[in-house]
């Protein structure tokens, strides 16, 4: 897969690429609805004997056009999103740098420069995709802007039994700790990646050593609590349980929650290494304990709950 970064300046100098069928969208999370758009683009590309492409945008438009003191956290920051797109078998990913100047392009200018200018022969997008200044361009209007130079497919709403599958809905589920529901909407367990850093080593002292993980990118962190997780390091995946929280038994004033994972049957030193944590189920809320013995007893129950989860899901395939 080829990744091409574009902005208002570089788009003017790019050599004419090979023809593509291209999926357009922000695609935060690359969830089931997004996959329907991307798989349609792949099918249209195969039908025409051309390459498949995805155009996405970074950073999030809300981050550029919203309040500067309210940064956006992501389901899939850029590197994670690109990895997901690669796994879907896309040939080309265009990452467009979203700026205030870019946001002021007219719909026609966007189509001319970022669709026709990239030799796109077929466009695929969701029914609610908008483009151009203030989102004035709609999929219903795209034939007018195309003027016969490309065709398009509009993918209708993808829903479960409740409502539209959307990044906003998934964010809400994570904020409430409903990681299993989030996984159902995503089509995979929610994954947080980062670097293992030194902690205070209290877990080791009570028999439950943890890997403290700091995100390299701005991932959404699920609601505080204890979770069933897996941790992937150097291509190997291990079962475990994670605590997301402020460690109220020991600390009174942490500014933001810490993600720490107790990896089952694991004794390697992985400080400074990059890991991925996949969240499967929330076990309980974070608690404040009266002492070490109470913590150890509860962690023992948490471990048993996590092991039972993995046993059941292994048995169910």
Automatic annotation (TrEMBL):
Enzyme Commission number, as recorded: 2.7.1.26, 2.7.7.2
UniProt record, GO biological process: FAD biosynthetic process; FMN biosynthetic process; riboflavin biosynthetic process
Coiled coil: none
Pathway: Cofactor biosynthesis; FMN biosynthesis; FMN from riboflavin (ATP route): step 1/1; Cofactor biosynthesis; FAD biosynthesis; FAD from FMN: step 1/1
Database matches in Gene3D superfamilies: HUPs, Riboflavin kinase-like
Record's keyword terms, sorted: ATP-binding, FAD, Flavoprotein, FMN, Kinase, Multifunctional enzyme, Nucleotide-binding, Nucleotidyltransferase, Transferase
Domain Riboflavin kinase: 185-311
Enzyme class: transferase
Catalytic activity: riboflavin + ATP = FMN + ADP + H(+); FMN + ATP + H(+) = FAD + diphosphate
PANTHER family per UniProt: RIBOFLAVIN KINASE, RIBOFLAVIN KINASE/FMN ADENYLYLTRANSFERASE
Family stated for the protein in its record: Belongs to the ribF family.
Protein name: Riboflavin biosynthesis protein
Source organism: Shouchella clausii (strain KSM-K16) (Alkalihalobacillus clausii)
Source lineage: Bacteria, Bacillati, Bacillota, Bacilli, Bacillales
Gene name in the database record: ribC
